[in-house]
Amino acid sequence: MVTTAELVNVAHVTALVAAAFLVLVLDTFSRRKRGGAALAVGFAGVATSFVATTFHLGAGTDATAFAGTVAVDPFALFFSVAVLIATALVLVSSTEYVGRVFPDRRESLTEYVVLVLLAATGMLVMASARSLVTAFIALELAALPSYALVAFAKDDGAGVEGGMKYFVLGALSSAFLLYGISLVYGATGTFDFAGVASRLSAADAAGLGGLGALFVLVGLGFKVAAFPFHVWAPDAYTGAPTPVTAFLSSASKIAGFVLMFRVFTVAFPTSLNWLLAVQALAVLTMTYGNFAAAVQSSVKRMLAYSSIGHAGYVLIALAVFSSGGEDAALALGAGMSHLFVYAFMNTGAFLVVALVDDYWGVGYEFEDYAGIARQAPVVGVAMAVFMFSLAGLPTGGGFLSKLAVFAGAVRSGFWWLALLGAVNSALSLYYYSRVLRWMWVEEPEENAPTLEGRPVGIYAAILVAAVGTLALLFVFEPVLSTAEAAAASLLS
Amino acid sequence: MVLIWITLLIVLPLLAALATVASSRLGDAYPRYVAFGGSLVTLAAAAYVWLVPYDATGNALLSPGKAALVERVPWFEIGGYEVEYLVGLDGVSMPLVALTTLLVTAAIVTAWDSVHEREAGFYTLVLVLESALVGVFVALDFFAFYVFWEAVLIPMYFLIAVWGGPRRKYAAMKFFVYTNIASLIMFVGVIALYLTANVADTSMMSLTAALHDGAVTGALGASAETVRLAAFVALFVGFAVKVPVVPFHTWLPDAHVQAPTPVSVVLAGVLLKMGTYALLRFNFTMLPETAASLALPIAVVGVISVIYGALLAMAQTDLKRIVAYSSISSMGYVVVGLAAYTSYAVGGATFQMVSHGLISGLMFMVVGVVYHATGTREVDELSGIAGRAPFVAGVFVAAAFAYMGLPGMSGFPAELFVFLGSMSSTTVPYAPVVVAAAMFGIVLVAGYLLFTMQRVLFGGFRVGRGKTAADGGAEREPDITDASATEAVPLLVLLAVVLSLGLQPDLVYDVIQTSTDAVAELAGGGG
Asked: Out of A17-21, A31-35, A252-256, A331-335, which region has the weakest mean confidence (pLDDT)?
């Protein structure tokens, strides 16, 4: 029986679903399909959801709903805030983007908004999932709209290719995940995370349970684009409309991580030996992402690979996990806070690309960015904030969150992971600063296009992201302590 | 009363930077005046802070209660460590903060004549740089220190890369990569100390106290001694790149030659001091025993910098390169003085930081004026400047004499203190030999500076490679003018400060000594 309290607790999810359906209904009855109303309703839905989430977070809600399949705890709520921020930034910048880049597809803006809202709904449920079945359904709810969003540019070869690749590999990863879930169910007879944990023991490491955990790891590895399950990411990220790329590489990745964190810390005991696999994933992912990013000639692709690198840093947080204790809470909380900062800086960076590459039509290559900052200094400064913060220079929240991740690793005794991460992070400055060199230092070419229009929505989203990134350097304490507390309550 | 003086010194330049950006909306003529006004206000605030509320009587790290104007705000807490925004002033940092504000003001005035492109951006970045530099010198929490330390790189990178000479992109990237790798090495070293020392917060005072109490554990199978030694080396390398100490110096000539004059002034005058300042604060204050045991190799590295820098300077034909390499030489004295660990050696080394900041700033400004007037910095292409531009030549001579450490100039007491103090060093074996070797550097400096002056300033007037008019050359004489008012005033101001510190070193030295004596007592003592 569903109680009122349960409904109140999941209000942040319902708000998004309601907004999505409202947009669809409005679209059916409206004549002029401009998309403005859809966007307004969608944004209102996200805002409502945000208010509900922060309310629950402030009130310290820690409850389960729907027969224990959904958890509304600080852990889920913390990630929901990050997902919602990324979603809001993407939505705000979408009207002008679609209007300029896909002028003949303005009518599709409604579908675009609905797809974003439904995907975000899936991500919020992923954050809350307490049962393998809920987790799988939520993941599919997040994934299916994403496939369509990536292929939004249906007349563009790259868009279709990216969408197709994403769909096929996404389906493959879902198969892995589902197979893993069935194996775990076979070994334990339950879908419930806590139930799974109580019925698995070290003896299962080489049995069905261990194999199931491995398959689940692979399935989620696809979702967060960890090496070697990342192959879909660069093409999907490049082919998708850039705000969608921002959405996928921020919100979708965050949602993948929240599920991974919860499944592996709650359901699968470390005696299944998954730690070693995650350590390998972390090292490979951050190193590969960094080196691949360094050789890109397109800014968008560079950011795509850099987001793979960042997945590697976050994997460190899980790789050093040890059952219980303060160190585990610190490590996990650090990974969470890095994702939180990442929601601002990565989304912001992609939105700058959306503005420069697509809206202004300057081009995708580094060279095309020559002298951009002279014409649009605000965008140049914002990009500098994002790039230095992503590189981990102490001029944005990225420095502190990376520091927290590495500190967590050192505390748990994995100083070598921290060192590898720090070296990777230092190297990353090379390709991040390259963007800035082109934007600020290089002279623009003679026939460089003038930048037409200053889209209010995209500018606003970029500025909010930049101010957020910068502010997180000064007010990092609330984020880290909330994340640590959430991690501690999850692990207790 | 809430103390906000130091934070004000950090925030004022930032506000000025914002005002500069805003003023560029009104017209291209405004940013320079707004920036100048902002830097002047900051300078005035620094002077006021020094003269009125400043009351430090000891070393900020060794006797935390005796630092002046300490301001602290909790920042975040990580893994059991309290991290704070924590700033304070003592006898080491106060003069360096004043030096920073003075040189930045002078640099901004200098830029009026030499920077004509994207002016608003230039002045904004210089002011942001000033804010970060002040932050470096006042920070007393390691994380606050590191934030400012790295924040210096970003405006500096753009200042060189956008407004520099022909090879500016290469020079800027080299500067960025060198110093950033050094920062990382230093960061790892400090973190290793924090992890092995028993501290509850990340303030530099707590770390100092913990290290002095021996509250350090080993790690990863290594003993506490090994950890200290490894951390010391990491810190030394990290800071040595900034100083720079031979062989970590190769970024400096490139950066200096490519940087525009005002940026060179700040680079040589203040940025290099970050390295020696940090050496004093971290290596020599926190790890005195390790430093004392390594005093001889460190002093030898210092002497090598002195001699090698001077020899390299001799071989140069570009005026700016000459000054750049002689900076390496002068900073070598600071390293020698620190290693000697006596009252006068450490105090003199700190005094040399201030003095060299002023003199090298003056020198770069003079070279900038010559370049502006003639269009070349090649020694071979210049001759007889004194006849046409007597004022510039006069300041050039005065600056060069200051560089040589002539009595009456600030370089004299600085080097005298270092040499006298080092003679009686108990940490450096064979101290007199080391000092004698270092003193040989003075001979070299005097030699090449006199030779350079003779060629550039005196003789028949000539610009370019042709013969002089006196030799019957046919080349048309370029029209060169003496320094303009905006070039002359900062030169005179700096020269006045150099002279007054030369005649009355106690003005600053007394303040320095209140903080450096405690450092000297950690190892060698006395002297």
From this structure: A31-35
Using the predicted structure, report yes or no on whether residue A11 has a pLDDT greater than 80. Answer: yes
Taking contacts as CB-CB distances below 8 angstroms, the residues of chain B near A384 are: 154
d(Cα A28, Cα A23) in Å, to the nearest integer?
A: 9
For residue A342, CA distances in Å to A285, A335, A350, A382 come to 16, 10, 12, 15
Q: Do B172 and A441 touch (CB under 8 A)?
A: yes
Residues of B with CB under 8 A from a CB of A: 74-79, 118, 121, 143, 146-147, 150-151, 153-154, 157-158, 161-162, 169, 172-173, 176-177, 180-181, 184, 187-188, 191, 195, 220
- Cβ(B21)–Cβ(B76) below 8 Å: no
**Residue tagged 């003069």 (tokens):** B95
CA B235 and chain centroid, separation: 18
Q: Which residues of B266-283 are buried (b: 16+ CB within 10 A; e: fewer)?
A: bbbbbbbbbbbbbbbbbb
Q: Do A393 and B150 touch (CB under 8 A)?
A: yes
Cis previous bond, A228, omega within 30: yes
Cβ contacts of B258 on chain A, cutoff 8 Å: none
**Whole-prediction pTM value?**
0.91
CB atoms within 10 A of CB A446: 5
B213-239 burial by CB neighbour count: b if 16+ within 10 A, else e? eeebeeeeeeebeebbbbbbebbbbbb
**Gyration radius (Cα) of chain A, Å:** 21
For B35-50, give the DSSP string.
HHHHHHHHHHHHHHHH
- Give the model confidence (pLDDT) of A325-340 as tens digits: 778 888 999 999 999 9
- Contact (Cβ atoms closer than 8 angstroms) between residue A354 and residue A303: no
A455-489 core/surface letters (b: 16 or more CB in 10 A; e: else)? bebbbebbebbbebbbebbeebeebbebbbbbbbe
Pick from A399, A407, A441: CB nearest B79: A407
Q: Mention every residue, 6+ apart, whose C-beta is less than 8 A from residue B284.
A: B291, B338, B341, B346, B519, B522
Task: Answer yes or no: do B158 and A440 touch at CB < 8 A.
Answer: yes
CA distance B325 to B330: 9
- Chain B residues touching A426 at Cβ < 8 A: 180-181, 184
pLDDT digits (tens, 9 = 90+) for A276-310: 899 999 999 999 999 999 999 999 999 999 999 99
List alpha helices for B294-410, DSSP H: 295-314, 319-340, 343-374, 385-388, 390-404
Choose among B151, B158, B173: nearest Cβ to A394: B151
Supply φ then ψ for residue A425, to 5 degrees. -65, -40
Burial grade of B353 (CB within 10 A; 0-12, 13-18, 19 or more):
buried
Asked whether the beta carbons of A120 and A251 are under 8 A apart, the reply is yes
> B21-57 pLDDT, tens per residue?
999 888 888 999 999 999 999 999 999 999 988 888 8
- What is the pLDDT at residue A7? 86
Question: Distance from B515 to chain A by nearest Cα, in Å?
Answer: 29
- Give the A window 320-349 contacts with B, CB below 8 Å: 327, 330
What does the DSSP 8-state code read for residue A360? S
Q: Is-cis flag, bond preceding B247, omega within 30?
A: yes
Place of tokens 């070296």: A423
For residue range A165-198, what is the model confidence (pLDDT) as tens digits? Answer: 999 999 999 999 999 999 999 999 899 998 998 8
What is the count of residue pairs from A and B with beta carbons less than 8 Å apart? 67
Give B67→chain A minimum CA distance, Å: 25
**Domain locations in chain B as residue ranges:** 5-522
Please indicate whether, in this complex, the C-beta atoms of A481 and B77 are within 8 angstroms of each other.
yes
Residue A192 phi/psi, 5-degree rounding, is -70, 130
